[in-house]
Structure formats: structure tokens, C-alpha cells
Design a protein that fits this description.
The complex is a heterotrimer of chains A (429), B (508) and C (148). Chain A is built from 11 helices and 26 strands. Chain A is α/β, with parallel strands linked by helices and 429 residues long. The longest helix of chain A has 15 residues. The longest helix of chain B is centred in the C-terminal third of the chain and has 25 residues. Chain B is globular and about 90 Å long. The chains are: A alpha/beta (429), B alpha/beta (508), C alpha+beta (148). At the A-C interface, helix 1, helix 8, strand 22, strand 23 and helix 9 of A face strand 3, helix 3, helix 4 and strand 6 of C.
């Protein structure tokens, strides 16, 4: 059995671990576009900020690939997939035969069609290479503009600021963090950034990136007419699934590569996982692209074990983000911005601006479906349990969750016992 | 401190905390159900109020740094042989409360303990002792009426066949049983533990008067079901659930007194088992209202035998009182298979202190008197005698057998095995060891698994010691010791005492 | 693998498991020093937490799940599954304190280190003779380590 994995992000790591749980021997080939073993992509903001050195970037130990019997082809891009012949062609001219193929090519940064966006000094801050370049530049440059007030944008802004660069964020939406967080959480995070001196501008975006005669960026002209002088621009508007390869191979692609509950694509023995995949979502039951880290690993793992023949369905992804802004921790899980006016949802929120704490709970049909925590995040996972295990919460129990926070005694007794103190199995060794 | 009753400081124990060792981890605070330890918010450390300490030693046992010492309070009243401090404290308490002084466990007062005045024999030269590690040693005991004589016929295969019909017997691997402690007075965890331990050991435990929870029916072969004056939890299934039925007439700790389980202790499970309303007091009358004579008792014995189709022996338990020998004789004649006698030092979950410490007679004397009376009347074979009330160790057990007991009941020893320190506050329902309490928070301190193992260990240990003592006397079965008073000698006892006990003085 | 199973029916809420945990994970291996000094100085804290509600209590810590959510969520590779022992292993050096694991673990088994951008999580006392300290210290056998 030969497994070929295109992509070397966290989904790929998940897949290796999923395969190896059930198949100790099969050959695994990983095609890595970048020149390094899999690294923690979100770590590049820590790296850029100078909080960690390059030695801490790799996700797994030095001997990981060898130990797991993985042939890692660095700097290798897959150029074509032939699902009939079951081969993958690489930019090196190789043709690799597979029994099972996993496409986990991730996402590519979305670059909006702004005048001047093409050329030097524009970074997407999604690869280690960009981070390394920015570190080199940081001592020379004075000002940066970050387009996009999402997670990547804010972390890029924070890291550049830590390097002594004066940073301005522009966000088209009326608030930052409009994706995973709600208005109040966004405001607390924004305040924290403003406090340290990062300029946050909402409801406005770049109209044109102006360049000098040397082609280098001079500044950004905003939609409100202001002009921000800067040396570099970080475009962090989001990522889109990197699904071209699959599309060309005739595999069904909607927003991402469409996969079933086993993470299998429309083509036989071809699977997809991670930011490129459009997989089932736990809460909505719909197929969605949810480009977040834990989903990528979980999908990789589930695809791995299914490729190895274990036949265990993927449980579905749950959107979740944990991120800190200058020491202010925030967590957001599940549905946190239900459609306005939708009576099916019930929201309980508490904000303490002085203490910089915020908690928002979102219920639907007697179940917790989402929450946001800012500042005091210690019970985060305990809230996640109620969403993940879809625990019914009625009357007094719901009040307890709202007033006293999550507690394991609110779990249904059977689930509690099964989880914590199961009956010893008859065949326990 | 200020604002306190004038005699508040006359308490029995002092809590001494070693400041070098105490880390203020609050384990003691959480363990003390009497709130003697508390967290002082102002001082940010654990403090103690010794006046609340009952001397149960739970904190001392669980303190992870051994920082706590519970000791007797040093302050002494002026010496007075008559007005001993205990009496002063009784009076102070009653002058405050106007009530009966309640207490728990067996009497601590200095009534002569004859076990300590009796010594066992051993073989030297003229008769060989037996090594129980090398040779078989029989502790198996059968309780129940034994026939006057045995008759045999020739069976079809030509071999002799027993013709005599034997009365039902209770078979025990050790000559001891766990005495009656009702579900309610002690909690369910300990009932599970006793049931499991008795089953594993091949002995019996007694349900006490609180009925038997359905979930424990599976241990029936090792269960004695008790019928007392309150008739709590008595029904046909219950009577047929055990290996024997016991009618409780009296209890050594409180002869002539009924029982009272306060409504607060009647939780759902107790209520269901006892068949009494939730939260209502369960009162056991002092007498059985249908028993005013030996003849009445006989009616109940046979009613129970009928109900259980004569499959199991019926025991009658009485407190050791002045006329115990005559009463026991009557019980035997009324048709009981077993008579259980509970001495003055027997334990209780709650009894008035005056009754416990002043009513009844020691088990040693009662046992000897009963055994002798039944022999004299030629009816000793019609009942087995079970002695109870203050059997502290295997030597007490051996001495009791030599005095004429077929087996002993133990209860206080069983509770000590699972942690009881005899603080005697059982009646408060706040037992910090999780024994005499149904408070869910406290009761779980008795893990049935742990408790059962402790009980099993105790009986195994005693069993080994009994075998050693038997072997030393040159006996290879407990049967050979039964009523064999020649194996006992008295030290420092009067002629009368020796006459009642039926033993010679040491040296004779 | 042998995991630690808490039995709420006999957990007495004494918190001695927590004391054992901090002692086992202390520099001094001395309860008094660990509790009175190291806790304050180094932020030493217990991986085990006693949850209480009314009379019910139970001591919980990492379950070392077969498919741990924390490993999936870990962006730094600090949390990994050890295929040989089955333990969910935490590498403190790699951790960046992003709290993704804390968010993802539905069992509340991960807590923040009080002083550093690190987490605190049960390691099953893998290097301790006699197994997990909490199990050894429990006075009521409410914690058991066994194969189930």
C-alpha cells in the first residue's frame, strides 16, 4: 500500500498519524512545496515577533518522518493527478503511483484587485518565507499597513509592532475580527491593540497601493481619501482553498474539494483534508470550508485512518479560534454570530470593560452552540464540551451554566460515567 | 473568647497544630464534620476551635504533613474519687440542656472485664501441641439445634444412612459473625461491605432492624435478617432472603429501651428499605407489643418458621440481664435454634448514657451462666449460643468459646477495622469516618471495596490467631474447645466469680 | 493503556490528590516546600482538580484520550500522542501559550500556568516509581490506574 500526501501542513501530519494508527507498514510519500518539514504555521507570528527562534517552528521532532516511515519530498509541487492511472506528477518530472491519495494543499491568500497590489513589498504573512523576509526588513522599515482586521492581520500587526515597526490596520468591515468573534470581543481586542500604539481603522480599506519610481511601495490610499505612508503592505484578507489541482483532475470541487464523511473525494481512493476541503460541519451538518487548524488536523487524521481502511467517519468540524492580543486571551467556538433577529437563538452575554472580560453564550434548541470568552478563558474547554457532545441543557441546568459556568456535573450521568469511570471491559488486559 | 456559655471551655480534647508542619492546605477543614477546624479569612490560615472537637482523630489521620495532634485537654479539676470530672461535665451539660445524655458505642466505664482475668492453657510435655501451619485445623461452626441422639438405618447401597432429621443449620467458616447494625444507623456502603466480606469469608452478617435493601438479596446465603420490635422492613421476601432469622428482644447497650432513628436520617433509600415514610421518625418500641411471655415468643418463633418454611434457623437475641439464664432457657424451650446474648459492653448507635453504663451484666458472666443452666436442664443441644458485646480480639473469642459460646458476634471491632475511633458521637449522624452517618458527603468516606477488604483481613487475622491458640492447647478443632472451661484459669477473681464462670483459679 | 479513573461515588473531596500532584511535580519533592514556597515562586500547580457540587465531588485530570482534541489543536507541536505509551505528551519547551488546547479539550483537563505562557497538564507521573502520585495518595481508593 502506498499513500501519497500532497501538502505538508498540519493536515498532512494528522494523516500520517491517522494512517500509522492502523497501518504500521504502508509506504507514505509526502510532497512538500516548501523547503522545510511541517511547521506550525500560526507560529510565524510568534517567530516574527521574536518570541520564538526558528528551532521551535517544526511541528514534530527531527526523526519524525524517518520514525514513521515517511518519504518526505521537500520543495516538490504536484502538478497533476491522474485518477485513472492513480499517479501524481511533480514539478520535478516524477510520476508517483499511489494506492491512496490525500490532497491537503491548504489555502492560498486572497489578494484583492487593488491597484498596485502586484509588485514588491506586499506580503501575505502565510508562509515562513514571508516571515523571514519581514524579520530581515523590520530593522530597515518604519511603517507598515495591514489590510484586513482578521486573525492573521491582527497577529501580523502585533508581530511587526513588536519588531519596532509602526503599524496601521485597515478593515473594511465596521469592526475587527468580524469572522470568528463578535462586536464586543472585537472591541476589547481592538482596545488592547490601540493601547500599545497600533492604529486600528475600521469601515475603510485600501483603494490603491502607490509605488515610487523604484517600484517600491510609498503608501496606501484609503477609500476615505486618507493616505498612509508605509514601506510594506501586509494583505491579510483571508485564504481560499488551493483546489486547482483537484479541479484539473476532474474531482468535484465546490467552494473547496467536496468530501464525504470519510473525507473521500468524488474520485476513487482520493481524499482531501484541511483548508482545501469542503467537509461536513458539526453544527450545521452542511459541507463547508472551515479553514482552521484543529479541523485540518482532525480531517487529516480521519482521512488517514479511512485510507488505512478503518472506516470511521469524520465527526465534523467545529469552528474554534484561540488567540491572544498583547496578553489578552480570547476564545471563540461554534456559532457566535447567529443571524440577527433569529428567534431560535438565545444569547447571554456579560461584558466588563474595566476588567477586560467578556463572555457570550449562544444557545439554540436547548443546547449550547457557541461561546466567546475574552480575558477569563480558563473554563474554555468545559464550554466546548457542551457544544461538542450536544448536551441538552434545560431549566435549572441551563441557569447553572449561565450563572456559575460549566461544570462536569451538568453532564448527563451516562456520559459522565462513560467518559470518566467506564465499567472495566470484560476482556481488560 | 467573649459571648460564650460559662462551661464552654470544659471540653475533652485539644487540637494542637504544629506551625512548622501545617501548610494551611485545609484538608482538616474539609474532613471535620463538626467544624472544629476552620479557615480564618482574616488571618489567612487554618484555625481550630477545640471546644467542638469530639476526638475522632479524622483530621490527625488525614493531615498530609502530620501537623495535627489531638490530645486530652490538660486542664484538670481538683481530684475527687467520687465526683470524677465526667460527672461534673454531665451535670453542667444537663443543667444547660435539661435533657437525657445521649451517647454512642459501648460503655467505656470501668466494669470488670473478665476476659482480662481469664488465661488460656497450653500443652507441655504430656500432651502434644499442634502446629496449625502443618496440620489441619477446623474452625467450621454450625449454629442451630442439634439432635438429642442420632439414628441410622441401612441405605439401599448397604451403607448406614442418617435417619434423624436435622434442624436447619447456619454454616460458618469461622466461629464469628458481624453483629446487627441496622441500615440507617450505619450507612449502605458499610452494609455492602459487610455483605461482601461475609460472603467472601463464609460467615454471616446481620441486617439489624432496618430491613434489607433489595440489591443486597444476592448475599442472602450470608445474611441474617432481623425482626425487631418496630418490625421495620419485615415482609415475606425479607424473611426468606437470609440464611437465618433473628428476633431482637434486646441490646446490651440499652436493655429495656427501644430505639429511635430520627426522621432526618430517613432518606429515600432508608425509607424504602424500612418501609416507613420519608423523613418520619422510626421508633422501635421498648417491648415487642405482641410478646409478654415465653409462650408469646414461641408464637413469633413459629410464625417466622412458618413464613420461611422451616428452612432457616431462628435466633433470639437478648441483652444480658440479671435473669439471663432463666430467660435463655425459656427461649430454648420456646423453639429458638439460636440464642444470642449481648453483654453490657455491647455497642449502639445511640443510647442514653445512664442506661448504657449502668444496666445489664458482663457477657462473660452471662454466657457462663446460660451455658451452665442449659446443660443443667439437659437442653444445651437444643440451641446454639452466640455471645456478643465487647469481643475485642481473637483471645476474647477463644475464651468465649471455652466458656460455652458456639460463636461470637462482633460489631465494634468491625467498625474499628474501617476507621472508628470510638469517639462515641454516633448519635449526631455526623460521623467523620463515614460510618454512623447517612450524610452523602460523609457516607462515601467508606468505600465498600476498601471496607470489605479490611473486614476480611481482620477475620483472616483472627482466624490465624485462633488456630494458633487452639493448636497450642493441643486441639485441632474449635468444636473441641466449646464449653471446655478446663482450658481457662482465673487470676484475681473471687470465689463467687469463679463459681459462676465455672473456672479454677490459676495454680489449681 | 493504563489510565487513571476517578470514582465520584467514593471521592471524599479531601484534595490530597492535588497535594500529591504538586509534590510529585515539584523541585524539592517535599510537600511542605512545594506547597508553601514553590507554588508561589514558580507557579507550581496541580494537574488534578477536584470538582465539587454539593455532596458530589470528583478529581479530574487529563484522560490521555486515544484521539485527543488538544493534539489536533496544538499549533506548536508541544502536545503529541506517544504511540508507544499511549500518553498524551506535553513538551513545555515547545509550548507558546496560545491556549488552543485549553479551548479544544472538552474535559477541562488543561489549565494555564499561573505565571508563564505555558499550560499545566497531567503526565501520568511517567517518571515516578509507583505510578501516578494522585492514585498512590488517595486515601479512599477513589482513583484507580488500570486497563479498561
Amino acid at each position: 500500500m502506498t499513500y501519497v500526501i500532497i501538502g505538508n501542513g498540519v493536515a498532512s501530519i494528522g494523516a500520517i498519524e491517522g494512517i500509522r494508527r492502523y497501518d504500521a507498514k504502508g509506504k507514505i510519500v509526502v510532497l512538500a512545496q516548501e523547503d522545510t518539514p511541517a511547521y506550525g504555521r500560526p507560529l510565524i507570528s510568534y517567530f516574527l515577533a521574536g518570541k520564538i527562534g526558528p528551532e521551535r517552528l517544526p511541528l514534530r521532532g527531527d526523526d519524525y518522518y524517518v520514525k514513521n516511515g515517511v518519504e518526505l519530498k521537500l520543495g516538490t509541487t504536484a502538478t497533476a493527478v491522474d485518477t485513472a492511472k492513480k499517479t501524481v506528477t511533480t514539478d520535478k518530472g516524477d510520476s508517483i503511483k499511489y494506492d491512496r491519495l490525500l490532497i491537503c494543499t491548504g489555502g492560498v491568500p486572497f489578494v484583492p484587485p487593488i491597484t498596485g497590489v502586484k509588485g514588491p513589498d506586499i506580503y501575505s504573512f502565510t508562509t515562513l518565507a514571508h516571515a523571514k523576509t519581514l524579520i530581515e526588513l523590520s530593522s530597515k522599515i518604519k511603517r507598515a499597513v495591514v489590510i484586513g482586521g482578521g486573525l492573521i492581520g491582527l497577529k501580523a500587526a502585533e508581530s511587526l509592532h513588536d519588531r519596532g515597526v509602526s503599524v496601521t490596520i485597515v478593515e473594511l468591515a465596521p469592526r475587527i475580527l468580524s469572522g470568528g468573534f463578535d462586536e464586543k470581543a472585537g472591541k476589547l481586542a481592538g482596545n488592547r491593540l490601540k493601547k500599545v500604539g497600533i492604529d486600528v481603522n475600521c469601515g475603510v480599506t485600501a483603494k490603491e497601493i502607490q509605488r515610487g519610481k523604484d517600484e517600491h511601495v510609498k503608501g496606501v490610499l484609503l477609500t476615505d481619501g486618507r493616505f498612509l505612508e508605509c514601506d510594506v503592505v501586509v494583505v491579510a484578507i483571508g485564504v481560499v482553498p488551493n483546489s486547482a489541482l483537484a479541479k484539473e483532475a476532474g474531482i468535484k470541487v465546490e467552494r473547496g474539494i467536496f468530501v464525504d464523511e470519510k473525507l473521500a473525494t468524488s474520485a476513487k481512493d482520493v481524499y482531501a483534508a484541511g483548508d482545501v476541503a469542503q467537509a461536513i460541519d458539526m453544527l450545521s451538518g452542511e459541507h463547508r470550508v472551515v479553514p482552521i487548524w484543529p479541523n485540518a488536523y482532525n480531517q487529516g487524521f480521519a482521512s488517514g485512518r479511512n485510507m488505512a481502511g478503518a472506516k470511521q467517519p469524520y465527526q465534523g468540524g467545529l469552528p474554534m479560534n484561540s488567540i491572544s492580543f498583547y496578553g489578552l486571551p480570547t476564545i471563540s467556538v461554534g456559532t457566535v454570530n447567529p443571524p440577527e433577529g433569529d428567534k431560535n437563538f438565545e444569547i447571554h452575554a456579560q461584558l466588563d470593560e474595566e476588567k477586560e472580560t467578556y463572555r457570550k453564550l449562544v444557545f439554540r434548541d436547548g443546547r449550547l452552540v457557541g461561546y466567546v470568552l475574552v480575558g477569563d478563558i480558563d473554563k474554555g474547554g468545559m464550554y466546548t464540551a457542551f457544544i461538542k457532545f450536544a448536551m441538552p441543557l434545560a431549566g435549572e441546568d441551563k441557569d447553572k451554566l449561565i450563572n456559575a459556568g460549566p461544570e462536569v456535573f451538568l453532564w448527563p450521568p451516562e456520559l459522565f460515567n462513560e467518559t470518566w469511570n467506564p465499567e472495566p471491559a470484560a476482556d481488560a488486559r | 473568647m467573649l459571648f460564650q456559655p460559662i462551661n464552654r471551655n470544659y471540653h475533652d480534647f485539644s487540637i494542637v497544630r504544629d506551625k512548622d508542619l501545617c501548610i494551611n492546605c485545609k484538608v482538616c477543614v474539609r474532613q471535620c464534620s463538626y467544624e472544629a477546624h476552620y479557615w480564618d479569612e482574616a488571618r489567612q490560615r487554618v484555625m481550630a476551635d477545640s471546644s467542638k472537637c469530639v476526638g475522632c482523630h479524622r483530621c490527625e489521620a488525614l493531615c498530609p504533613t502530620s501537623a495535627i495532634l489531638i490530645q486530652k485537654k490538660h486542664s484538670d479539676f481538683r481530684e475527687n474519687a467520687l465526683w470524677r470530672p465526667q460527672f461534673l461535665k454531665y451535670i453542667y451539660k444537663q443543667a444547660d440542656s435539661g435533657g437525657v445524655l445521649l451517647t454512642g458505642m459501648g460503655s467505656p466505664v470501668n466494669i470488670p472485664i473478665y476476659w482480662d482475668r481469664l488465661l488460656l492453657d497450653a500443652s507441655q510435655v504430656t500432651n502434644p501441641s499442634i502446629d496449625p501451619l502443618r496440620e489441619p485445623m477446623e474452625l467450621k461452626t454450625f449454629l442451630g439445634a442439634k439432635p438429642q441422639k442420632l439414628e441410622f438405618t441401612k441405605g439401599k447401597d448397604g451403607n448406614p444412612k442418617l435417619k434423624t432429621k436435622l434442624a436447619p443449620q447456619l454454616e460458618l467458616n469461622y466461629p464469628l459473625m458481624f453483629s446487627a447494625m441496622s441500615f440507617g444507623s450505619i450507612n449502605f456502603n458499610l452494609h455492602i461491605a459487610m455483605a461482601r466480606a461475609a460472603t467472601e469469608l463464609g460467615i454471616c452478617y446481620n441486617t439489624g432492624e432496618g430491613g434489607l435493601h433489595k440489591s443486597l438479596y444476592k448475599y442472602g446465603k450470608n445474611t441474617i435478617v432481623q425482626v425487631a420490635s418496630g418490625r421495620f422492613g419485615v415482609h415475606r421476601d425479607f424473611l426468606n432472603a437470609g440464611a437465618a432469622i433473628e428476633i431482637k428482644i434486646g441490646q446490651g447497650a440499652k436493655p429495656g429501651i427501644g430505639g429511635h432513628l430520627p426522621g432526618e436520617k430517613i432518606n429515600a433509600m432508608v425509607s424504602q428499605t424500612r418501609m416507613v415514610p420519608l423523613g418520619s421518625d422510626a421508633i422501635s418500641p421498648a417491648p415487642h407489643h405482641d410478646i409478654y411471655s415465653i409462650e408469646d415468643l414461641g408464637q413469633l418463633i413459629f410464625a417466622l418458621k412458618e413464613a420461611s418454611e422451616y428452612r432457616v434457623p431462628v435466633s433470639v437475641k437478648i441483652a444480658a440481664v440479671h435473669n439471663v439464664a432463666a430467660i435463655a432457657s425459656g427461649i430454648a424451650r420456646a423453639g429458638a435454634d439460636i440464642v444470642a446474648i449481648d453483654g453490657v459492653r455491647g455497642g449502639t448507635g445511640a443510647a442514653p448514657g445512664m442506661i448504657r453504663d449502668n444496666v445489664g451484666i458482663p457477657i462473660e458472666l452471662a454466657l457462663a451462666a446460660v451455658d451452665q443452666r442449659l446443660r443443667d436442664e439437659g437442653i444445651r443441644n437444643r440451641v446454639s449460643i452466640v455471645a456478643a458485646g465487647g469481643i475485642r480480639c481473637s483471645a476474647d473469642l477463644v475464651k468465649a468459646i471455652a466458656l460455652g459460646a458456639d460463636a461470637c458476634y462482633i460489631a465494634t471491632s468491625v467498625l474499628i477495622a474501617v476507621g472508628c475511633t470510638l469517639c462515641a458521637k454516633c448519635y449526631t449522624g455526623k460521623c467523620p469516618w463515614g460510618i454512623a452517618t447517612n450524610d452523602a458527603r460523609l457516607a462515601k468516606r467508606q468505600n465498600p471495596e476498601v471496607a470489605a477488604q479490611k473486614m476480611i483481613n481482620l477475620v483472616h487475622a483472627w482466624g490465624h490467631e485462633v488456630e494458633e491458640m487452639l493448636g497450642g492447647m493441643g486441639l485441632n478443632s474449635i468444636e473441641s474447645l466449646r464449653g471446655n472451661r478446663d482450658k481457662l484459669r482465673a487470676v484475681g477473681l473471687s470465689e463467687t466469680e469463679m463459681e459462676i464462670l465455672g473456672v479454677k483459679h490459676a495454680g489449681r | 493503556m493504563k489510565r487513571v479513573y476517578p470514582n465520584k461515588d467514593v471521592c471524599i473531596g479531601c484534595h490530597i490528590c492535588e497535594l500529591a500532584c504538586i509534590t510529585a511535580h515539584s523541585q524539592s519533592k517535599d510537600l511542605i516546600l512545594a506547597y508553601t514556597q514553590e507554588r508561589g515562586q514558580t507557579g507550581l500547580s496541580s494537574c488534578k482538580h477536584v470538582h465539587e457540587e454539593g455532596p458530589v465531588c470528583v478529581a479530574l485530570s487529563c484522560r490521555h484520550c486515544d484521539e485527543p482534541s488538544c493534539v489536533a489543536a496544538c499549533i506548536s507541536g508541544a502536545l503529541q500522542k506517544d504511540p508507544e505509551t499511549g500518553r498524551t505528551v506535553y513538551n513545555r519547551e515547545k509550548c507558546v501559550g496560545c491556549w488552543s488546547c485549553l479551548m479544544a479539550c472538552p474535559y477541562g483537563a488543561i489549565s494555564r500556568h499561573p505565571l508563564e505562557q505555558k499550560i499545566v497538564k497531567c503526565d501520568l507521573c511517567y517518571d515516578r516509581q509507583g505510578g501516578p502520585a494522585c492514585v498512590a495518595a488517595c486515601p479512599n481508593k477513589a482513583l484507580k490506574q488500570e486497563e479498561r
